[in-house]
Amino acid sequence: MNICFDFDGPIIDVSERYYRAYLESLKGIEKNRLNILEKSTFWDLKKIRINDFEIGLMSGLTLNESIETAELRRSLNFKIDLFIHDRLFPDIYDVFSELTKRNIFFFIVTLRRNSHLVYAMKQFKLNKYITAEKTFSVEDKKNFTNDIQEKYVLLVNAFNRLGFNPKETWMIGDSETDIHSGRLAKYSKVIGITRGIRSKEQLETLKPDHIIDNLSEVIGLLDH
Fold first, then answer.
1. Which CATH number fits the domain that encloses residue 101?
2. DSSP assignment of 161-189, as one string?
3. Element at 110 (helix H, strand E)
4. How many domains does the chain have?
5. Helix (H, G, I), strand (E, B), or coil: what is residue 1?
6. 9 and 19 share a domain?
7. In the structure, what pLDDT confidence band is assigned to residue 168 with cuts at 50, 70 and 90?
8. Angle (nearest 5°) at CA 33 between 27 and 34
9. Span 101-123, mean pLDDT?
């Protein structure tokens, strides 16, 4: 039995980083004509797949400003200075400890860049649970346009390199990219988690095998 975790969403709360990127993208625009969204409103919009352009319009930006800030935000979301705002979800250490006790093999497959993943692994002291050979991420300078295809390749590379059967492995993620790529790679169960970038309602449309709110619920699924 093996478990594959996506990183951002299931393990790391990235909502503050994305919100800081949103605020930074609005710098230089006259504040008196802006409708700056509260973090909770901003994140709720992201979870129901409202795109950055639409969020710009809701924030009082012109058409051109919304286009420009949407493009800017895509890069700001991954600005290294903003990674300090990421937070580890509070159940992670307990879940990883329990999985280790049960001799369940677990690993990470993420569309984070290699250096960003290494930074976070050290930042949150996750190396004691997941060593480098159990992490799969994207090369820093690699360009790609299809998230599902890239994630699928990483998932296949993972079970080839680790030498296990995908039909004996669960995939846990928080987005359509995770659900679709997990199915394409023929992982035995694909599980959606609601605390990431997509709401429960959005995940339900993708019809994963299970939907959970917290990673600790995985332990309960293992007992059934």
1. 3.40.50.1000
2. HHT--GGGEEEEESSHHHHHHHHHTT-SE
3. strand 105-113
4. 2
5. coil
6. no
7. very high
8. 50
9. 96
- Burial group, residue 184, by CB count within 10 angstroms (0-12, 13-18, 19+): middle
pLDDT at 145 over 90: no
What distance in Å separates the CA atoms of residue 141 and residue 49, rounded to the nearest whole number?
27
The residues that bridge with 107 in the sheet, in sequence order, are 4
Phi, psi torsion values for 7, nearest 5 degrees: -95, -65
Query: What are the residues whose beta carbons fall under 8 Å from the beta carbon of 109, sequence distance 6 or more?
Result: 4, 5, 6, 136, 137, 151, 154, 155, 158, 171
Q: Which of 65, 84, 103 finishes a domain?
A: 84
Asked which of 45-49, 62-66, 142-146 is least confident by mean pLDDT, the reply is 142-146
Which amino acid is residue 43, in one-letter code?
Answer: W
Distance, CA of 97 to CA of 174 (rounded, Å): 22
Average pLDDT over residues 152-177: 95
Report the alpha-carbon distance of residue 158 to residue 106 in Å, rounded: 11
Please tell me the pTM assigned to this model.
0.94
Phi–psi pair at 128, nearest 5 degrees:
-70, -20
Domain that holds residue 195: 2-13+87-222
Give the pair of three-digit tokens for residue 20: 């800081």
